[in-house]
Amino acid sequence: MMEYKQKGKLFTFDLLKCLRTDYFHNDCKKCMEICPENAFYFDRKRLSIDFDKCTNCSVCLGVCPTEALTLDFFDPNDYILKNETHLSCKKDIPCLSAFSSEHFITIALRHGTLSCDLSHCEGCHLNPENKTLHSIRERLEEAKRFLDESGAEAVIEEKPYQEDRRGFFKAIFSAAKETTKEEKLSSLQSDLNRVPLKLTLLKNSLKKASKDLTNKEISTAYSFLGNKKIDENCTNCRDCVQFCPTNALFTSSEGDAIWFIAGKCIDCAICNGICKPKSITDAQTLDLVAFAFDRGEELIHHQIEICSECKTPFAYKSGEMLCDRCKSFVDEFADIFKLASDME
């Protein structure tokens, strides 16, 4: 029996939330690329983790788009609700790499400012060849671009933190081993709800700030934003709906239309890759208000007819009342009942 959760003493990898489990051809390996201990590896094409190498450092948390990686003693989603506006590994967090672009934006939107202490990254054992520092700065720059483009009155800056945090790790590791009565955000998320909590927190922050945003329509050139469009080549096979990990794509109750909610999309591109006629593509802009409030949009509406051959419903375009399967059969085997003399 396959185990879908790999669990160490303090670290958990949920394979059912991993994009590589969702779709065989997905090539996400962000956790593997950033891990300072090279603890992630592939076992028979399945992403796995070596807990003998894992040090529970949290460096991989912020890069995982689906929150498939969690630590028992530190949850970045819970942390950003503590009204902290100065992030430092010398304060009360294991590493700034535990936070994603969405987290940085959320803090800045809620408080108008965010200070990040990166002064201790150089020479840190969690930052081999400055790989971790480069990744954190990429996320901070992405957050700044988003705030600038949306017109939000919020500032993100680098600023050292002076307070000493001696005994911090000892305290959090001992606390992790004790049963806590405090309800965490992660406990509120249903196993069936794959929308990352960090995206929900971002949307809630945008709702509060929406009146002050000067630009409601922004580009989708961000790692956490996705918007879709579908052209007339769509056959209504619904593979994109079936494989969407967050149910951002869904069909109408009558089955004649495909709808999309940008606020649930994590831009994994599985739908783009799985669409056989390549009719689903990325839209270049996004309505922030529709995104924040999870407003649905009908991407395509089909005329449903009954195939004259197999009697199944299909998306009718024009011509004969034949579904694509029956059409392809007729085209491929049109000569099967012809006499040899008729084919000369």
UniProtKB/TrEMBL annotation:
Domain 4Fe-4S ferredoxin-type residue range list: 45-74, 226-254
Gene3D superfamilies from the UniProt entry: 3.30.70.20
GO molecular function terms attached to this record: 4 iron, 4 sulfur cluster binding; metal ion binding
Taxonomy, superkingdom: Bacteria
Keywords, alphabetical: 4Fe-4S, Iron, Iron-sulfur, Metal-binding
PROSITE patterns: 4FE4S_FER_1 (PS00198), 4FE4S_FER_2 (PS51379)
PANTHER family, sorted: ADENYLYLSULFATE REDUCTASE, BETA SUBUNIT (PTHR43687), FERREDOXIN III (PTHR43687:SF1)
UniProt name for this protein: Dissimilatory sulfite reductase (Desulfoviridin), alpha and beta subunits
